[in-house]
Amino acid sequence: MGILEGNSLLRNTIDSSLDMIQVFQCVRGTDGKIEDFKWILNNKASESVYGDVIGKSLLKLNPGVLEAGIFDIFREVVRTGLAQTNLHHYVHEQFDGWYHQSVVRQGDGVTTCTKDVTKMVLAQKKIIDLEKDRHREVLHLTLLKVQEERSRLSEVLHNEIGQLLYAASLQLSSLDPEMERKEFVRNRLKLEKLLALTVKEVRELSHDLSHLPLEELGLKGAIEKFLSRFPDRQRFKFRYLGRKSRGNSLQENLTYRIVQELLLNVAKHSCCSHCTLLMRVSQAGIFVQLRDNGRGFDPTSTVPTGIGLSWVRNNVENLGGEILVESHKGKGTVVKLRIPYPTT
User: Fold this and answer.
1) In the structure, what pLDDT confidence band is assigned to residue 206 with cuts at 50, 70 and 90?
2) At residue 287, does pLDDT exceed 90?
3) Is 326 helix (H, G, I), strand (E, B) or coil?
């Protein structure tokens, strides 16, 4: 291959690149220091941006390279012979964007390859912003759940434990040493029973606050115990399939809390006569299906239906799971969710 053919092939090659390829030669002062660079080659992509700039000064046409630190990078590459790759946010002259640039020494100068990555950087920034918004939403829902839990505990303390203590107080005030012994003993036994119930309620409440029953009962036993405390337990049917749960993992803790929330929603809002809960645990993860024959709702409605379902949805998605809600007014609701175990 002749010199002319080689030059033509090289030129065609660099012109085929969608990135800007440029070659600059050093402009040195009388003391030998680099004072500027001048263009000696541009490919087609670069010409479409700069026009005809061969032989012209870099600093005169693009003085922003000083502020952006690009000029110093060029000089450093010439001095050391070490190539550099950098990402620049360049907002000078006709530019306003992000550029990925590679610089290598070429004789007494440099060759650069510059790619406009503005769209990619902005897309990544948008993803990061969306993720931040998502985390803020999860935090907001979590705080609401904490407040809801505090309200529930306050209700338990007032309506259950408070009423038991009040009844015990009335029973205590009715005790009179001068009354007949049989009546005194009967009233004292009533008082002891009320106090025993109060102690039982306080212990169960304390147990719920201190740790999850998962640690001692596993998922199946924990959910059965939770359902046993429902006053209308007969409405709920629970079926567990597959292997035993692995232990007190994040996935199982949140699955337990999610199932609790779903069951409480059914008890409070569905007005159903029958509800079935199916849970299947495999090596891959946990599958849950909850079906009721209650009044249902419109899942596509923009009217908020409480924080429960939003909290459930966010936690399932944060665990890398999937959730499907099917409901129609007057025709009940089906919730299906899958939470994977992390791969090891």
Assistant:
1) low
2) yes
3) strand
Give exposure, 264-273, as e/b (b: 16+ Cβ within 10 Å): ebbbebbebe
Query: Which H or E run includes 101?
Result: strand 97-105
Helix (H) or strand (E) holding 129: helix 118-155
**203/142 Cα distance (integer angstroms):** 26
**Per-residue DSSP letters for 8-41?**
HHHHHHHHT-SSEEEEEEEEE-TTS-EEEEEEEE
Give the single-character DSSP code of 94.
Answer: T
Q: Rounded CA gap, 59 and 66, in Å? A: 8
User: From CA 230, how far away is CA 41, in angstroms rounded?
Assistant: 81
- Cβ contacts of 214 within 8 Å, gap of 6 or more: 222, 245, 247, 248, 252, 253, 256
- How does pLDDT run across 22-69, given as a tens digit for each residue? 999 999 999 999 999 999 999 999 998 899 999 999 999 999 999 989
* φ/ψ (deg, to 5) at 297: -160, 175
- Using the Cα atoms of residue 157, residue 161, residue 163 and residue 165 in order, give the sign of their dihedral: negative
Ranges 90-104, 181-195, 282-296: which has the least confidence: 181-195
pLDDT tens digits, residue range 290-313?
999 988 887 766 444 555 677 788
Angle between helices 181-210 and 162-173 (to 10 degrees): 160
- The pTM of the full predicted model, rounded to 2 decimals, is 0.47
Residue-wise burial string across 79-97, b where 16 or more C-beta atoms lie within 10 A, e elsewhere: eeeeeeeeebebeeeebee
